[in-house]
Request: fold
Amino acid sequence: MLRFFILSSLVAAAGPALWGQAAPSAVDFVQPTATVAAGDQGGTFFGHPPDPRKTRRYFIAAEPVVWDFLPLGKDEVCGNPIPPMIAANRDTLMLRYVQYTDASFTTRAPANPTLGILGPVLRGVVGDFLAVTFLNRTHQPLSMHPHGVHYDKDSEGAYYQPLPGRGAAVAPGARFTYVWQLDESSGPLPGEPSSKGWLYHSHVNSDTESNLGLTGLIVVTDPHRARPDGTPADVDREFATLFMIFDTTAAGPVPPSAAALAPADAVNSLLFANAAAAAKAAGAPPRGSAPDKELTEAGERYAINGRIYGNLPGLEMNEGEHVRWYLLGLGGEADNHTAHWHGVRLLEDGVRRTDVMELLPASMKVADLVADNPGSWLLHCHVADHMNGGMFARFVIFPRAAVGADRSPAHAFLGFPAPLTAP
Ligand SMILES: [Cu+2]
Reply:
């Protein structure tokens, strides 16, 4: 209730003047390619519907969310004092991908808390198609652009000239069904681990949309090394972690008029009235000047899955388990990360033993570990500035004898299952 009141007040305080004074943005360049009036014009793969016996169906909406980078309110791992600018600005308006169980988009699929801000994990084996119906429940054109899979132009989900595909920019309220083939080139080579992780993210204004939280993971498994449900047969548990410095001042486009926004859209409309937009309206300092740097630093969050200072929950496993970790990076030139696990050693992409994985923006790596050392351990970025900024989490290996709440549950794979659509 208090949170709603604060948001309402902020929306009211932003006022119509803010909308009128915003500078034109790159998004003004965008002509949505999928509209409410046209209906869903997707669902095909190079002109034909995919074989339903090989197609896994997903229903993903983009929705606004009030995101807390620090839900515990403190650092229980390293005991750092939380910087006042972060403690005072915990609620951040972001966008995220949310999975639903069917095309009515009424029942949410269970979400995995260890994924944090990451969207739902989409998965299949080589030979499958993923048919992903995307519904845009925000006020700005968005998309889903996949890495690593095979697609035609309409299912590329990226907006640029000339001739953007039909799924390049999905208008507010509209939907589009992307069809992605998990062909041989999207799966692992025989010498690679039995599954690969690929990023997906919105790609109308890619950088801004990643900073708003619109990212996720696709997992493709080698069918010869898979269980019947498509999960890799040689591992017991999966985790995915995105190392990314979020710029929480990332501004969305400005709606045509404040009057066009319904009250129910208050949370969504506040996205357009965030700190960056307010600064612009007030006369923003030139880029690179000291005040601009302060503004940027005030909005930076050195996060793992959108959580900071040890606030990412659920990285728990049991002694003896074979655990697969999908490592992702995104962001800008400061996003050079070195993910370091204490207490365990990992096999990087099947070729190198290490306990540090190097990540650059759009890096996608697989690390396998055997949980052979029970205890509570630190996972952190080894870049000193990033560690100091809160880019760390705790993971736990429960001893073999542990029972009950001290044992990690057996449902251990990422993603809400999407069975093949026809038997
Ligand atoms: Cu880092």
